[in-house]
Amino acid sequence: MTTARPAPAASGLSVQQVLLCGALIVTLSMGIRHGFGFWLQPIIQERGWTRETFSFALAIQNLAWGIAGPVAGMLADRFGAWKVLMAGGSAYALGLVLMAVTSHPLTFTLGAGVLIGIAQSGSTYAVIYGVLGRTVSPEKRSWAFGVAAAAGSFGQFVMIPVETWLISHLGWQTALFLLAGTALLIAPLALGLRERRALGVSAGHQSISQALREAFGYRSFQLLMLGYFVCGFQVVFIGVHLPSYLKDHGLGIEVSTGALMLIGLFNICGTYTAGMLGQRFP
Question: Are 49 and 43 in contact (CB under 8 A)?
């Protein structure tokens, strides 16, 4: 009597390996990102800039992330997700260094805005979800996406107090240099997502425009886009401006730190629960 074995994952990687490496990458990338608001006042006070200068750079960062997302996904399909992740981690570190050393608003916008935004597109969900989709069976895919999303919120919960401590005790520039070194950890973790098969050799050879037309033809995709827009708008706005707003009203940094940590904590519960429910309901 022979026992049927499950078919191997298309990626050639184990689910546990992909979840572990993918979750750690998202934890680092999103964790660093969610604490940028704590650098607003230290940077503008030392550089003599307005708050609009800093917030404009962060707005450009999110636009760059969104615009570069489809390109990062395309490159990951064609050349391998691990290569895109390594490039994204390196660009992330470089952008953080530019944030620390630049003294001109334009250079700051290019580093903190354009470069880090592009880096986030290559080191977060767009690339990680692709590997998860090829590795995890459809029966557990929603759960796996929930785990990866929860990892990003876990990064917010863990990294924000670390970042505020670094700024308070070591200075904002040293804190950025240390975070740049942390971002470089994405590169070795990306090796854990190195798939065995050559990507980009599917029979369809679908172009980007064809893929976009097909995607936007689905009502579910349109609603998903709208949901991400609402999520990104509110979370980024709160993350960038809440620390300074509370400080303006005489509240200490521990209040904004605790508030943003609570957002991350409850988002861990919410995203994981949503992933679990996605396995049982449409």
Answer: yes
Backbone angles phi, psi at 136, to 5 degrees: -90, 140
Rg (CA), the chain: 20
Domain holding 133, by residue range, is 15-192+217-278
Angle at the Cα of 23 from the Cα atoms of 225 and 168, rounded to 5 degrees = 95
Confidence bin at 197 (pLDDT 50/70/90): low
Give the pLDDT score at 200: 45
Q: What is the pLDDT of residues 203-230, one digit of tens each?
A: 456 777 888 888 889 998 999 888 888 8
Confidence of residue 14 (pLDDT cuts 50, 70, 90): confident
- Number of compact structural domains in the chain: 1
Decide: helix, strand or coil at residue 3: coil
CA–CA–CA angle 116, 65, 52 (5° rounding) = 70
Nearest to 89 by CA among 162, 194, 180: 180
